[in-house]
Specification:
The structure is a homodimer.
Chain A lengths: L5 H13 L2 H8 L3 H15 L4 E4 L2 E4 L1 H28 L2 E7 L1 H9 L1 H4 L6 E7 L13 E4 L8 E9 L1 E6 L10 E4 L7 H9 L4 E5 L2 H9 L5 E4 H4 L5 E7 L5 E8 L6 H16 L1 H4 L9
Helix pairs in contact in A: 1-2, 1-3, 1-4, 2-3
Chain A binds a DNA duplex (30 and 30 nucleotides) through helix 3.
DNA sequence: CTAATGTCTTTCATTAATGAAAGACATACG
DNA sequence: CGTATGTCTTTCATTAATGAAAGACATTAG
């Protein structure tokens, strides 16, 4: 009767909850291989089979179910301790820095990134310039260029395509009216594009990129927007082909030192999933109207 | 907010309970160094000091006390799970093999070795031959020779001295009457001694060494007994000096493979303490009557 | 006061645990 | 029906955790 490491119980719970090694591994921050081994060890030690294994995941046996129910109480204690821990020294904050449109996407899908019971707060800030993670101004960032700083860890999350958009079924008279941000605020290439290519046709100038979407939807003219924004808006349609020269990659960036922090890993992972699930949209592969 | 391994909580509890690294380490079956590191990590992660460290041990701080009280519930769950585990496939048995007299000592001090709420059963068997742990016939053994088998782990527990004993204040007429076990059953040197040294004076022969004590106490003659037996019996007194040629060492032996099993470690450790606390008696340093 | 005991801590070689990648297999999809 | 996706498992090089021993320090005993 070897004694059972409490970690084994923790692992068991994760597998039972997620129904498989992969999910449990991600939740625990270890590899599926490790989770599998630990569950195997636990079964060995307890002397009972706890899971029914299949290629599609793990399912609890009767014994596993019994253990699972007992361990709920253990998990409850840990949650209480975590709360105690937080109230002791203030809950953690995850600072997420991204561009206007990724921030917009996150806001639209906030439930996929953060929920009430997450135990950390989210501090989102918009920056068109490259997120300055190196100076620890934020914990998770989304960048359009692969970071070179060795202290930053990056993860490629696909391509971003751009196109011009206008109000759906807009009168042809608007074809010439362009919307843009002021030249001073136009840092990103897609914001500079109108100034460089159609400067003479710029009808309305705003200071925030976010306003471009509102203007276009209101029928003020056409604006260059990321495809995932324009194609996702039922009130907009493409006003031309993808502007290929604006296409660029996108990376999630975290500080190498902090990326192990649970809540940072959580946010970064969820963000990754969110963007990945919109990968086609980002890449401009789902135009709301075909040409 | 890195997540805390449940093992860390387990370690914390052990330290809090035992009041120090050393005790906690023994209870957990790891080294004090590891326990110290884990506690340090936990404090680091929680961001609060949990213990007041001193050269004499660890004492809980206020925060530590708060955590300790919360974790009690966690431990309760684990204990319940352990019970469930046992009722599922029969509770564990620890097989303890020792000579007549160590077995006798254990029986006299059974509360130091086992208690009702231990969660395992004890199966004591007496063997004058060397305990055959190699074949897994028992889990914990006490031997008079250092085992050579590499699969066995041994721990020296001191020296054993022998002397002749007789009824206290016995009439002198009994000086010549010796008590012995039958030559066939006399395997250990101390049992062979009467046959080799005072064969002509052997008055009573029994098959079990245990009977020697009863006979001597009843005034049937004198018998060679381990000093810890004879000196401990108020009804006996030494009938001569220690028989130095019989003195030998003594070892607790466990199977290397099984010695990590919790209950085996428990029994072996308690046995060690019990014998150690009688070390002087074993070594014959506390004669009930001085010459 | 000195020695002895018991404690924690640190260091370093060793051991055990881990992750990445590849394989194997089932399921879902076109 | 074949392809693609997602899962678990296995292998092996790497990394992290560990234990033994020595050091440092306080306390206790003589």
């Amino acid at each position: 009767m070897k004694d059972i490491s409490w970690d084994a119980y923790q692992t068991f719970l994760a597998v039972a909850r997620h129904g498989g090694l992969t999910g449990a591994a991600q939740a625990s921050g270890v590899s599926p291989a490790t989770v599998g081994r630990r569950v195997l060890d636990l079964e060995q030690t307890i002397g009972r089979q706890l899971f029914l294994r299949s290629q599609t995941g793990y399912r609890l046996t009767a014994d596993g179910q019994a253990l699972f129910e007992q361990l709920q109480a253990m998990d409850a204690v840990v949650r209480r301790v975590e709360n105690w821990r937080q109230e002791a020294h203030g809950s953690a904050v995850v600072r997420l820095m991204a561009g206007t449109w990724v921030t917009w996407l996150v806001c639209e899908n906030i439930q996929a990134i953060w929920s009430e019971r997450d135990g950390f707060r989210l501090d989102m800030s918009v920056s068109e310039r490259r997120a300055t993670l190196a100076h620890r101004e934020s914990d998770v960032g989304v960048r359009a260029v692969m970071p070179e700083e060795p202290s930053l860890t990056s993860r490629h999350i696909g391509e971003v395509a751009y196109a011009a958009y206008r109000q759906r079924n807009a009168p042809d008279g608007l074809a010439a009216a362009w919307l843009a941000v002021s030249e001073d605020d136009a840092i990103s290439p897609y914001l500079r594009w109108p100034h460089e290519q159609v400067a003479a046709s710029i009808a309305v100038i705003v200071s925030r990129p976010r306003s471009l979407l509102d203007l276009a939807r209101a029928g003020a003219g056409q604006a260059v927007l990321p495809c995932f924004v324009g194609d996702l808006d039922p009130g907009l349609e493409r006003a031309g082909e993808e502007l290929k020269q604006l296409r660029h990659g996108q990376w999630i960036v975290t500080n190498s030192e902090d990326r192990h922090r649970r809540e940072i890993r959580t946010v970064s992972e969820r963000l990754y999933r969110l963007v990945k699930s919109h990968a086609d949209l980002f890449a401009g592969k789902r135009p709301s109207r075909s040409f």
